[in-house]
Amino acid sequence: MNTACFAAWIEEIARTVHAEKDRLTRLDAAIGDADHGANLDRGFTAVSRVLAAKQPETTGAMLTMVGSTLIRNVGGASGPLYGMAFRQMGRVLGDTPDVSIAQLCTALEAGLAGIQKLGAATEGDKTLVDALAPAIQALAQSVQDGVKPEEAISAAAAAALAGAEATIPMLAHKGRASYLGPRSVGHEDPGAASTALIFAALHAVTTR
Ligand code: ADP
Ligand code: MG
Ligand code: MG
After folding, report:
1. Number of domains in the chain
2. Domain span at residue 22?
């Protein structure tokens, strides 16, 4: 994946987040404060604007820009968390011109570590970690198995989606949803749903 490929991924995230804004907000209305769709749409609209003005020259600079722009523009828990993840990915990629699936996987692992350092959520806490962690596991497994990049990304996208759906019966232990206690059960976590969108966007651009 080169900078053009990362730019296409980011634009596709912005497009799908905008298209799915209301669904994300509805999910957040059930167990949060009904702003997740608006938060991410504001963030990725800002990212698109920055990207249109001047495309960063390296893959690392591109993802660092995404992270910093999200931190600046998204209020709420998801801004700093996603922002941290993209910034960590950017730091790991640096000036790598053509990012392999193995390198993408390493970068995503650093992103997840950053999210967990900041938010202290582990799998099962009903957060975006429940979509991100299995997606990365699927990607790592694919790298180990030596499957084609498209198949690896397809497996990661499927795992993220399954991970998001698996948050429905969970009891929230982190974020706003945790204030609801047992009433958080029976609803999909909005952040896990947006993480699934981010991987679906990656799948969409790699199969174009
Ligand atoms: P806020 O809850 O501040 O309104 P958002 O609605 O944008 O922020 O984002 C909510 C999402 O953030 C949750 O659905 C969850 O996935 C994620 N989240 C919240 N707290 C944490 C945390 N400590 N660790 C990981 N993810 C978290
Ligand atoms: Mg919210
Ligand atoms: Mg909020």
Report:
1. 1
2. 3-206
